[in-house]
Specification:
This protein is an all-alpha fold. It is about 65% helix and about 0% strand.
Length: about 130
Protein backbone atom coordinates (compact mmCIF):
# COMPACT_ATOMS: atom_id res chain seq x y z
CA UNK A 1 0.00 0.00 0.00
CA UNK A 2 1.29 3.42 -0.93
CA UNK A 3 2.16 5.78 1.91
CA UNK A 4 1.31 8.86 -0.12
CA UNK A 5 -1.88 9.01 -2.15
CA UNK A 6 -1.23 9.31 -5.85
CA UNK A 7 -2.95 12.31 -7.35
CA UNK A 8 -4.44 11.98 -10.82
CA UNK A 9 -3.87 14.70 -13.41
CA UNK A 10 -7.66 15.13 -13.57
CA UNK A 11 -7.55 16.53 -10.03
CA UNK A 12 -5.25 19.39 -11.04
CA UNK A 13 -5.78 22.74 -12.72
CA UNK A 14 -5.26 22.54 -16.51
CA UNK A 15 -1.76 24.11 -16.51
CA UNK A 16 -0.49 21.67 -13.88
CA UNK A 17 -2.30 18.73 -15.51
CA UNK A 18 -0.48 19.51 -18.78
CA UNK A 19 2.94 19.35 -17.04
CA UNK A 20 1.92 16.15 -15.27
CA UNK A 21 0.80 14.41 -18.45
CA UNK A 22 3.76 15.60 -20.51
CA UNK A 23 6.20 14.36 -17.87
CA UNK A 24 4.38 11.05 -17.47
CA UNK A 25 4.14 10.54 -21.21
CA UNK A 26 7.50 11.78 -22.49
CA UNK A 27 10.11 11.69 -19.75
CA UNK A 28 10.00 8.02 -18.89
CA UNK A 29 8.21 5.50 -16.69
CA UNK A 30 7.70 7.98 -13.85
CA UNK A 31 3.91 8.44 -13.70
CA UNK A 32 3.97 7.25 -10.07
CA UNK A 33 6.62 9.87 -9.25
CA UNK A 34 4.73 12.81 -10.72
CA UNK A 35 1.56 11.53 -9.02
CA UNK A 36 3.30 12.07 -5.68
CA UNK A 37 4.98 15.34 -6.67
CA UNK A 38 1.52 16.67 -7.53
CA UNK A 39 0.93 17.09 -3.78
CA UNK A 40 3.32 20.05 -4.00
CA UNK A 41 2.30 21.93 -7.15
CA UNK A 42 5.29 24.30 -7.08
CA UNK A 43 7.72 21.36 -6.95
CA UNK A 44 5.94 19.56 -9.75
CA UNK A 45 5.67 22.69 -11.87
CA UNK A 46 9.32 23.64 -11.46
CA UNK A 47 11.17 20.33 -11.06
CA UNK A 48 9.34 18.34 -13.71
CA UNK A 49 9.44 21.26 -16.15
CA UNK A 50 13.16 21.74 -15.48
CA UNK A 51 13.92 18.06 -16.10
CA UNK A 52 12.01 18.12 -19.38
CA UNK A 53 13.66 21.40 -20.45
CA UNK A 54 17.13 20.01 -19.70
CA UNK A 55 16.42 16.87 -21.68
CA UNK A 56 15.02 18.92 -24.59
CA UNK A 57 18.06 21.23 -24.60
CA UNK A 58 20.33 18.19 -25.06
CA UNK A 59 23.33 20.22 -23.86
CA UNK A 60 24.78 17.05 -22.42
CA UNK A 61 24.42 13.88 -24.51
CA UNK A 62 21.78 11.62 -23.01
CA UNK A 63 24.27 8.76 -22.58
CA UNK A 64 26.41 10.80 -20.18
CA UNK A 65 23.45 12.25 -18.31
CA UNK A 66 22.05 8.76 -17.74
CA UNK A 67 25.45 7.36 -16.72
CA UNK A 68 25.74 10.11 -14.09
CA UNK A 69 22.19 9.52 -12.85
CA UNK A 70 22.67 5.76 -12.54
CA UNK A 71 26.08 6.08 -10.86
CA UNK A 72 24.71 8.46 -8.23
CA UNK A 73 21.60 6.31 -7.81
CA UNK A 74 23.75 3.22 -7.27
CA UNK A 75 25.94 5.05 -4.75
CA UNK A 76 22.82 6.19 -2.90
CA UNK A 77 21.36 2.69 -3.18
CA UNK A 78 18.21 4.06 -4.79
CA UNK A 79 16.87 0.95 -6.46
CA UNK A 80 13.86 2.87 -7.79
CA UNK A 81 16.02 5.28 -9.79
CA UNK A 82 18.41 2.58 -10.99
CA UNK A 83 15.51 0.42 -12.19
CA UNK A 84 13.85 3.30 -14.02
CA UNK A 85 17.03 4.66 -15.64
CA UNK A 86 18.61 1.34 -16.71
CA UNK A 87 16.44 1.13 -19.84
CA UNK A 88 17.65 4.58 -20.94
CA UNK A 89 21.26 3.39 -20.72
CA UNK A 90 20.42 0.20 -22.60
CA UNK A 91 19.05 2.36 -25.43
CA UNK A 92 22.32 4.31 -25.33
CA UNK A 93 24.25 1.09 -26.03
CA UNK A 94 25.32 -0.20 -22.62
CA UNK A 95 24.66 -3.86 -21.90
CA UNK A 96 22.57 -4.75 -18.86
CA UNK A 97 25.64 -6.40 -17.34
CA UNK A 98 27.67 -3.28 -18.02
CA UNK A 99 25.02 -1.15 -16.36
CA UNK A 100 25.02 -3.42 -13.32
CA UNK A 101 28.82 -2.95 -13.08
CA UNK A 102 28.71 0.77 -13.85
CA UNK A 103 30.62 1.85 -10.75
CA UNK A 104 33.27 -0.89 -11.09
CA UNK A 105 36.73 0.35 -12.09
CA UNK A 106 37.25 -2.49 -14.56
CA UNK A 107 34.00 -2.24 -16.52
CA UNK A 108 34.94 -3.26 -20.10
CA UNK A 109 31.72 -1.80 -21.53
CA UNK A 110 32.84 1.78 -20.92
CA UNK A 111 35.07 3.93 -23.09
CA UNK A 112 37.40 6.62 -21.72
CA UNK A 113 34.70 9.32 -21.74
CA UNK A 114 32.17 7.05 -20.02
CA UNK A 115 34.79 6.37 -17.33
CA UNK A 116 35.38 10.10 -16.95
CA UNK A 117 31.66 10.66 -16.35
CA UNK A 118 31.59 7.82 -13.79
CA UNK A 119 34.64 9.28 -12.01
CA UNK A 120 33.09 12.75 -11.98
CA UNK A 121 29.77 11.48 -10.60
CA UNK A 122 31.56 9.45 -7.92
CA UNK A 123 33.73 12.42 -6.92
CA UNK A 124 30.76 14.79 -6.85
CA UNK A 125 29.06 12.51 -4.32
CA UNK A 126 32.21 11.93 -2.29
CA UNK A 127 32.91 8.35 -3.39
Amino acid sequence: MARVRRISSTELPPDQAAIYERFAGEYGPFRNQVAVFAHVPAAMRHLMSMLMDLRDAATLPKRYLEIAIVVVSKLNECHYCVAHHKPFLAVEGLSLGGIDRLVDDDNPGLDWLDRLVVAYARAAWGH
